[in-house]
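Annotated sample (chain length 238).
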Amino acid sequence: MIRFYAPDIESTGELPEGESAHCSRVLRLRSGERIEVVDGRGNLFECVIDDAHPRHTSVTVVSRSELTRHWTPRITLALAPTKNMDRMEWLVEKAVEIGVDRIVFLECERSVRRVVKRERVEKIMVSAVKQSLKATLPELVELVGFADFVAEDPSAVKFMGYCDERTERRDFAVGYDGTSDLTVLIGPEGDFSPGEVEMALSHGYMPVTFGATRLRTETAALYALCAAHTIITQKTPN
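Output written by the structure step:
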């Protein structure tokens, strides 16, 4: 069954304009056909199309169920966006498909990009939620100062990945237990500044490495996310 995203489906009984156009014009679905709708808050609705309209397709909700996440700890991925935003958009898509609760774009001292188009990133996130058959849309923090973020992050386990070999670092896969809420910090292309490293460490972040090779920002982020889910799966009772 084809899946759509409509955050206000229960109150409006309609698909948003973009989803309506995809339903009626692209897929050419018609009245009486059944579809699935998610609201981004963990709910899945089975619906019947009443009127397939390009701007406001109306539906009747037949059933509602809750889709729980396949992981328990809350995962936050916080990183400085790269100059090439295509790479960040690719990362967002893959991160949502794999499973993440919050994506935070950081403004660091050495950041080369200080503007993020929220609407475009959210569209990519919605598409990834539908593609991966999830029902919860991760939280997106558009751009926040590094100091503000590290001072307020409540995660139980906080890792900082960076390339300064002068500081002793543990392997990420060894340092995470798979049961605690997790935040992973990934720096800009010029890495975190010494002041930012010191600040993060003072707020409980542990320095980690993602293996013996130097990785791009988006590669390091994806590595951390995949490793975290592997560890979480191993810790989850059958």
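Annotation: Residues 217-235 form the longest helix (19 residues).
Annotation: The chain has eight helices and eleven strands.
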